[in-house]
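Translate sequence into structure tokens.
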Amino acid sequence: GFIDSNGNYDSSLNDCIEEQNIEPFFNDLLKPLDCSQAYELESYAVKSESLEICCDLLNCQKPASILFYGKPGSGKTELAKSLCKKTEKNIYVFKNEAENNSHDSYALGRLMCILSMERPDSIIVVDEADSLLKTLQFSFFSFEPSDKKGRVNKMLENNQNKVIYIINH
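Result follows.
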């Protein structure tokens, strides 16, 4: 995702080269998430064992991925904020290009890159991840694996972080 098929590159790479740091490449995608006003975990109609498992995963030393699935407006993002607040880690939300009407595979490539770089004191929340994680496509009365299924699997396998994915479908 650094260079497109025409040989053009993202101008934020200039800052990366000058600073000898890859972080500026992600400044438009990773934004700090304010969880200070998040609800207490006890206020959700979720089993306490499930919340404890999520907290344990977010506090462990190894990478972890959690998926929140539900109808729009059911409180998935607020629950993620509450869990993050409980962990007292740095929280970042990944603003995928699907929200910004840009090309979906470019967002997946940048997310793969972000997740391959260890951020031990952070949690990354990937809200509206439906289009990024979609690995099936409709094909003449059936569903078949999409061409990005391998990339999604590789992203999940190579993740070095704590991540909460939020999807509606």
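Note: The CA atoms of residues 8 and 95 lie 22 Å apart.
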